[in-house]
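Kindly go through the following sequence and its backbone structure tokens. Advise at your convenience whether the structure tokens fit the sequence:

___
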Amino acid sequence: MQNIQIKLIETKDIVCILPLLMQLNTTTPQEVLKSRIYEMSTQNYECVGMYINNTLIGIAGLWFMTRHYCGKSIEPDHVIIDDLYRNQGLGKKLFEWIYSYGKSMGCEVSELNAYIPNTKSHDFYEREGYKKLGYHFIKKI
């Protein structure tokens, strides 16, 4: 495989994730996503990028929090491997990096949400050892 590098994306470069983010979120306008990314970067959020030969081909947002039921957690969010690079074991490599980074930050668990129709991601997460604990609900207010 080509030269793979996984590293945190600096806040000043965070908009580089927009093309990949738009593969997952096809309904939110790009300018809205850009604004939200900047706002997220001021919160408990980081983003990791996977690069092949200096080309960004995968991302995962990372949220850090402590929850009463599981302790300190790292929550991968908007995990995307570019369509051209899927099914090559890159998601597994990205998650190995995430688990290692989470441990170095004192996290006890990794938890995440996945869109209901994205059954391929469900299969991947279950192979990674994630267990379904409940449903994620959202309501516009």
In short: The CA atoms of residues 123 and 130 lie 10 Å apart.
